[in-house]
Amino acid sequence: MGGIIRCEILPISVIETFEVSNNKVTIQLSINATWKLVPISVKRTTAGATPKDDEGGTVYNHQFETTIRHGVLRASDIIEYRTYCRMGCVVKYVDANGKVRILGTKEYPLRGSFEEIPGETAADLAGYRLQLFATCLTPQLDFRS
Predict the structure, then answer these.
(1) Contacts of 45 (CB under 8 A, 6+ apart)
(2) Which are the contacts of 12, defined by CB distance < 8 A and separation ≥ 6?
(3) Side by side, which strands form the sheet with 111-118?
(4) What pTM, to 2 d.p., does this model score?
(5) Which among 29, 53, 60, 111 counts the fewest CB atoms within 10 Å?
């Protein structure tokens, strides 16, 4: 894991179609919907989909975690990220090899938490930690633009 150079997030509510074929996904968005760029900390971002054998076959534990510095967020951004965590979302990221991947699906969206994390001193706020998880039937998918 690691080596994430760019990340975008999308609420599940704006996905019109989510078509998977040969581990590649095509996503059609509602009119005027766009991906939101996440100002990630490259050294503190992980993403992946770990396989797990289950009675019904293999399932994949999709996970995404990053730290976002305090100074780059507005109050509306904080509300938006908390809504994504509660209502569900998908994450699109680019790894160090230039591969564009999708975590979460329309049927199994990512959900999680968005919380403050302390800084170096007691009065300091370093930023926020965004943690997202989903158990899916597919591995992380390649994005087909």
Answers:
(1) 2, 4, 7, 64, 65, 66, 67
(2) 87, 88, 89, 90, 104, 106, 109
(3) 46-54, 57-69, 125-136, 111-118
(4) 0.91
(5) 53
Neighbouring residues of 121: CB distance < 8 A, sequence distance ≥ 6: none
Torsions phi, psi of 41, nearest 5?
-95, 110
Distances (CA, A) of 29 to 1, 89, 111, 139: 28, 13, 19, 22
**How far apart are the C-alpha atoms of 11 and 103, rounded to whole Å?**
12
Average pLDDT over residues 1-12: 87
Which of 110, 11, 21 is CA-nearest to residue 60? 110
Count of residues in the chain = 145
Q: Which of 66, 139, 69 is nearest to 103 (CA)?
A: 139
